[in-house]
């Protein structure tokens, strides 16, 4: 699932580390076809009924009863749904008097959920990007602080709170007050993601590159080695153009500065020396042929398909990418990843300390009539068995501590665990709303394709920012 957060930011210490979405839940939900499916009862599915639950055997059958309805963001054909089916089957073994209905909405959940909740339809648990959900569904979300103290499923006596990667929980909690809610936890993060450069290890080896770049200078040197080996170094497409400009400026200055840049009503921040340095570096990438010649016309998912087919070496994306293009890349693709290289002459607030990350989340309806049974199901969905099932079957990052990450994301785990600052989707470059989408990104493309010189880029951005905000 492709996840840039238009809602998500729309979206992996944005998500720290907002990692894998999604397997693929990231930026553009709108750029991928919706996958809607009818309601499904996991207890009747083959994969669910076949699941003989080791985790369910941890406790005797409970006295919980009634009905629980869970709305999922996946379609019933996706690997994530198979893991959910197994978790529900495990839950049913331990809670035989609870009826569970899972509705696999696919990406249509983004437009169906709010009307359904507002109409009073029974939805006890639902999956959403926490950042979007807490803003748009704040009248419907249940505060989970007390429930998080319950014992987790399959985590050696840990509470639910202690079983989840701490940086993810900290991130989710940080979203509450800005959304207009009381401080606390309103979602349990799962299927994390982070934004990283993904690369083809075989192509790096062919070019004689033995270590991933950590500085901008090393990055340029590796691009030259790739070019000399006849390998196209960098690609991206229209769904992820924002990541490249945001990644550079965020690495140099941090996401707070980038946020201020796109919201500066005077246009003066665009005259900062780091912006001219950025423009010169982008011109350099273009002039030396390090950018794919296709970037001007690449429509999602063209760029990532070129990576999967070995036509290009690097692509800046979310940790859902290996799962999203697994069919094209094949089982023998040698995945590698690294953080955006450290950009020189910054302000000390960027670099490797920050990472753009986020996660999908499980949220509960505060008007639900069966909270006890619903949260017990949530515990199975975010339990260690289910989270590690997401890793093995969907190449997603497990949200539980001490869990093994899927092999294609092994290097991403290092970035995720080391990052100290959560950067939003796009490293703040998308936070200007219409100005970001209508001016910042298109003007960047003029620069990246050689249509605009660095000096003219700076002048145009300063002028356009002042013009845009003067009309507000």
The strand count comes to 10
CATH-defined topology of the largest domain: D-Maltodextrin-Binding Protein, domain 2
- Give the % helix: 25-40%
CATH superfamily of the largest domain: Periplasmic binding protein-like II
**Helix and strand sequence:** EHEHEHEHHHEHHEHHHHEHHEEHHHEHH
- Count of discrete domains: 2
Number of helices: 19
CATH hierarchy class name of the largest domain: Alpha Beta
The Rg value, from CA coordinates, equals: 22 Å
What oligomeric state do the depicted chains represent? Answer: single chain
Dominant shape: globular
Largest pleated sheet: 10 strands, mixed
Region (Disordered): 28-57
Signal peptide: 1-20
InterPro entries: Bact_solute-bd_prot1, SBP
Biased composition (Low complexity): 31-57
Give a verbal description of the structure.
By secondary structure, this protein is α/β, with parallel strands linked by helices. The chain has helices at 46-49, 79-94, 109-118, 130-136, 160-163, 166-174, 201-206, 216-228, 241-253, 255-263, 273-287, 302-308, 321-324, 326-329, 371-381, 384-394, 410-418, 434-448, 454-470; strands at 39-40, 66-72, 98-104, 125-128, 188-200, 232-235, 312-318, 335-338, 354-364, 421-423. The protein has two domains: 29-193 and 357-425, Periplasmic binding protein-like II (D-Maltodextrin-Binding Protein, domain 2), CATH 3.40.190.10; 195-354, Periplasmic binding protein-like II (D-Maltodextrin-Binding Protein, domain 2), CATH 3.40.190.10. The protein is built from 19 helices and ten strands. Strands 1, 2, 3, 4, 5, 6, 7, 8, 9 and 10 form a ten-stranded mixed beta sheet that branches. The two termini are 35 Å apart. The relative contact order is 0.20. It holds the Pfam family SBP_bac_1.
């Amino acid at each position: 699932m492709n996840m840039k957060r238009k809602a998500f930011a729309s979206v992996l210490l944005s998500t720290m580390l907002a990692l894998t979405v999604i397997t693929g839940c990231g930026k553009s939900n709108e750029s991928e076809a919706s996958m809607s499916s009818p309601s499904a009862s996991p207890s009747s599915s083959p994969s669910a009924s076949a699941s003989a639950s080791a985790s369910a055997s941890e406790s005797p059958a409970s006295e919980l009863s009634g009905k629980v309805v869970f709305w999922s963001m996946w379609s019933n054909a996706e690997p994530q749904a198979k893991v959910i089916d197994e978790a529900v089957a495990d839950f049913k073994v331990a809670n035989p008097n609870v009826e569970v209905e899972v509705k696999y909405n696919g990406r249509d959940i983004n437009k169906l959920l709010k009307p359904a909740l507002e109409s009073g339809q029974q939805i006890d648990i639902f999956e959403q990007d926490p950042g979007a959900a807490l803003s748009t569904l704040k009248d419907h979300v249940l505060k989970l602080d007390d429930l998080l103290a319950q014992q987790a499923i399959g985590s050696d006596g840990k509470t639910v709170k202690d079983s989840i990667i701490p940086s993810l929980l900290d991130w989710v909690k940080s979203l509450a007050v800005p959304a207009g809610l009381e401080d606390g936890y309103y979602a349990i993060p799962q299927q994390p993601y982070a934004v990283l450069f993904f690369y083809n290890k075989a192509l790096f080896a062919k070019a004689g590159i033995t270590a991933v770049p950590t500085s901008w200078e090393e990055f340029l040197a590796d691009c030259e080695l790739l070019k000399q080996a006849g390998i196209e170094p960098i690609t991206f497409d229209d769904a992820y153009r924002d990541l490249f400009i945001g990644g550079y400026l965020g690495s140099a200055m941090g996401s707070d500065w980038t946020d201020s840049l796109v919201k500066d009503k005077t246009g003066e921040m665009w005259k900062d020396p780091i912006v001219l340095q950025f423009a010169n570096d982008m011109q350099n990438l273009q002039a030396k042929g390090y950018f794919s010649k296709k970037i001007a016309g690449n429509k999602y998912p063209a760029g990532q398909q070129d990576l999967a087919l070995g036509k290009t070496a690097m692509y800046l994306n979310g940790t859902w990418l290996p799962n999203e293009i697994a069919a094209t890349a094949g089982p023998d693709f040698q995945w590698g990843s690294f953080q955006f290289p450290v950009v020189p002459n910054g302000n000390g607030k960027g670099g490797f300390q920050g990472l753009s990350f986020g996660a999908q989340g499980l949220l509960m309806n505060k008007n639900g009539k069966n909270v006890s049974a619903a949260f017990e199901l949530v515990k199975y969905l975010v339990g260690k068995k289910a989270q590690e099932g997401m890793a093995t079957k969907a190449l997603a990052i497990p949200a539980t501590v001490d869990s093994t990450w899927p092999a294609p994301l092994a290097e991403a785990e290092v970035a995720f665990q080391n990052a100290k600052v959560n950067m939003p989707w796009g490293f703040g470059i998308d936070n200007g709303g219409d100005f970001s989408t209508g001016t910042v990104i298109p003007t960047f493309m003029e620069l990246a394709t050689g249509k605009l010189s660095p000096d003219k880029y700076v002048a145009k951005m300063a002028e356009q920012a002042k013009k845009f905000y003067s009309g507000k």
